[in-house]
Amino acid sequence: MAEGFVDTTTAAEEEIAELIKMDFIEPVMKEGRTLENKFIRMNPFIRLIVMTLAKRENYIDLGSEGDLPKGVTRKVILLRTDEKSSQYAIRNQDPTNLETLFNINQSLIDLQSFWLSKAKSLRVLQLGSWRGSSDHHIKVASAEFLESFVNLKSLKYLGLNMVYGIQKLPPSVSSLADLRILDLKACHKLTKIPTKISKLTSLTHLDMPGCYMIESMPKELGHLKELRVLKGFVVGNPKREDACKIVHLTNLKNLRKLSVYCSMADVEEATELEGLSEFEELRSLTIAWIEIPSPSKFSKGKSHRGNFFTRLVSRYHEIGAKEKRGYPLNTGIRRANADPVPEKLDQIKLEKAKSVEQLTGTPSPDDKSFLPKQLGKLDLRCFPNSSLPTWINPDQLEKLEKLYIRGGHLCYLKKFKTVKTLRLRYLTKLKMD
């Protein structure tokens, strides 16, 4: 999308399907099944031909030892070999016509602000890890290069995923009016999303899962009317007036995919999730119940804050792995002003139920679901109760075809007649007939 080859994700999926059909690329297989085209790979022989043609057309080029070739190239990759690093070689190049800067395996980013500020034609800036694994984090020598964003008016894609050392986004980000995709996934030191993010009126994808230091989101997210994908949204505490809640996002009429983190308290009422039914285009919804640490609790002393970050980093791999596998997440630090989690929640619910049918049986017509009726996929992670709440009513989810439940304390499951794909993982307490 950022390169201008396609305009929408739907068009991109169609192009990928066509390339797979023509055997140019192939989906990655895992555990005997495809990963829904999330990961694809190219045959080495075909890749060699593509790279040769790309170099011939001066589309992209890089010397085998990390040196940039002479001449003008619009695409540059950051590649580190045993002896050299291309990110130091590019400092001698004129970035005026540069369109793409893509990090391949550079673990330490050391870009100069004055050099990057000259790249006014830059459309794609991928500095984070593209591997999609929490084992590949990127460090920055200095976050000052972020200030150069004020001159990158043509930028459409910004990838800072898994970049360690970015605590906040600078005001210069608001200058990226043409930005379509902002990837902040696993920036685990990021503590705040600026209110000026509302200036990114062209944004269609905002990816923030794994940013466990963020306590709440700004209400200005509701101004991003072109947003289609929002991942990692932290549902604000209902008792805080300044926190962004689901109801503040109801103007996002184009939203098709949403993933949220919410607290473990009051799951049955779920006042934090009210407003979901307003998203008429929403097709995929992921809800993870998680306790999120509050950086404000550690703001009084550098030593305490330093110890906190040390603990968080040391546990980050474990936390990320648990989230993927659906285990209940707890970083060891409670969110400030968070409601207390009821003790013995499962036992209380089981004692109130007169029979198993009350937990698993046919939903009552009076059970009002505030989930979108057109929802096609529902993914629940780390669910803390023994049975699904009344606001998840199978009879009102007529188009639900995929139901994923990973981790938590679920014991009983309702009947979903329309579901074609059911995935239940890490549910040690689940009882099946």
Structure characterization notes:
The chain has about 425 residues and is an alpha/beta fold. It contains seven helices and 20 strands. The chain has helices at about 10-20, 45-55, 85-90, 115, 300-325, 345-350, 355-360; strands at about 25, 30, 35, 40, 75-80, 100-105, 110, 125, 140, 155-160, 165, 180-185, 205, 230-235, 255-260, 285-290, 330, 375-385, 400-410, 420-425. Helix 3 links the parallel strand 5 (about 75-80) and strand 6 (about 100-105). The longest helix is centred in the C-terminal third of the chain and has 24 residues, at about 300-325. It is globular and about 65 Å long. Mean pLDDT is about 75; it is low at about 65-70, about 300-320 and about 325-360.
Largest sheet: 13 strands, parallel
Q: What percent strand?
A: 15-25%
The chain-level mean pLDDT equals: 77
The count of β-strands is: 20
Q: Indicate the low-confidence ranges by residue numbers.
A: 63-72, 298-320, 323-361
Question: What overall geometry do the principal axes of the alpha carbons give?
Answer: globular
How many whole angstroms does the radius of gyration measure?
23 Å
Question: What structural class do helix, strand and pairing data support?
Answer: alpha/beta
Order of helices and strands: HEEEEHEHEEHEEEEEEEEEHEHHEEE
Helix content: 10-25%
Span from first to last CA? 47 Å
